[in-house]
Amino acid sequence: MKIVRKSQKTAPGFTFIEIIIVITIIGLLAGIAIPYSMRARDTARLSSIQHNLREIESAKAQWALEHNKTTGDLVDMAALKDYFRADAGVQDVMNETYVPNAIGVPAEANLPSGVALGNYPAGAVIAAD
């Protein structure tokens, strides 16, 4: 019978270098993913604001037709509330303020001060397309 001597036993697990490599890879993936997710969030917010502005423009057109208003006549959000779709309406995304403006002038969304969105600086005005 042959006796085999076992060498020094090591505890099962990962070495320090393996742990450092895994942490580095996770850090790189997070460094890539976080900016993309923030950009996607800003794009979604801006898209919602543009949708709200289109809703306001549509409501202004309907209101103007029903009340025989022409270009330059003033309108406010209270007058337009009955002209929004029941399921849609205008819901603020990030506490922006919507200004319908006069008939014939595109509606605007004013960003709050201190809040930038995509290419728009803090406090900027986003006009309807």
Itemize the secondary structure elements and their pairings.
Blueprint: H1 16-66, H2 77-80, E1 97-99, E2 108-110, E3 125-127
Antiparallel strand pairs: 1-2, 2-3
Please describe what this structure looks like.
- The protein is mainly alpha-helical.
- 14% of the residues are buried.
- Strands 1-2-3 form a three-stranded antiparallel beta sheet, with helices on one face.
- A hairpin with an 8-residue loop joins strand 1 and strand 2.
- The radius of gyration is 29 Å and the shape is rod-shaped.
- The model has no long low-confidence stretch (mean pLDDT 88).
- It contains two helices and three strands; from the N terminus they run H-H-E-E-E.
Summarize the structure.
With 129 residues, this protein is mainly alpha-helical. It is built from 2 helices and 3 strands.
| Secondary-structure element pattern, one letter each | HHEEE
- Which radius of gyration do the C-alpha atoms yield? 29 Å
The total beta strand count reads 3
Number of helices: 2
Structural class: mainly alpha
List keywords for this structure.
129 residues, three-stranded antiparallel β-sheet, mainly alpha
